């Protein structure tokens, strides 16, 4: 397998770090970005090329690596807990645009991306569009959607300073937030195995061989089961609405 150059954002911990380690162990070059590259380099000496998550620094790192990027893992992000009502005024808008701009700026290099944050639906839609747009250029897009993996994701979260709106007390939202916090350190997913599967899918080796034509990559049994339930729900919805959908055309 020929060595590739990988650009991995948010690589100082969690899945980003696991992917970087897997790529390095397989003989690939890795450009890893982090909010604090000095600290990341001290904690992860095995990854030699660190850059801050800014366009200029990333471009400099790419030039130092030879000017060619084969694989981009767009993984940087954080967990924001709360209802849309409690968070929409202060957090999502700047964060959403930041993600959109970062994603678009790196799109010319993209081969794989990780999406697990508040704006997952937004990233899903963009990934679908990118896949269609970039396919004629020979650039492959993957939408990797992890379930619960044992990283720091469930402990390094941000909540609205005012807390949860009292109107949500006793609702499914409150229960979900309680479960979310209680699962930290108990997740069944192994980040190292997830990273290996991603490596294999990107390089068309191992369990990833023959999977070139697919966009979505669900990781974890829990994620797969939620995907399946969603597909069944969508199918039921479509069947029930078929008559309504077909009733809106001009009469022959």
Automatic annotation (TrEMBL):
Keywords: Oxidoreductase, Signal. One of its GO terms (molecular function) is oxidoreductase activity. It comes from the Eukaryota. InterPro entries: NAD(P)-bd_dom_sf, SDR_fam, SDR_oxidoreductase. It holds the Pfam family adh_short. Residues 1-22 form the signal peptide. Belongs to the short-chain dehydrogenases/reductases (SDR) family. This is Short-chain dehydrogenase, putative. It comes from Talaromyces stipitatus (strain ATCC 10500 / CBS 375.48 / QM 6759 / NRRL 1006) (Penicillium stipitatum).
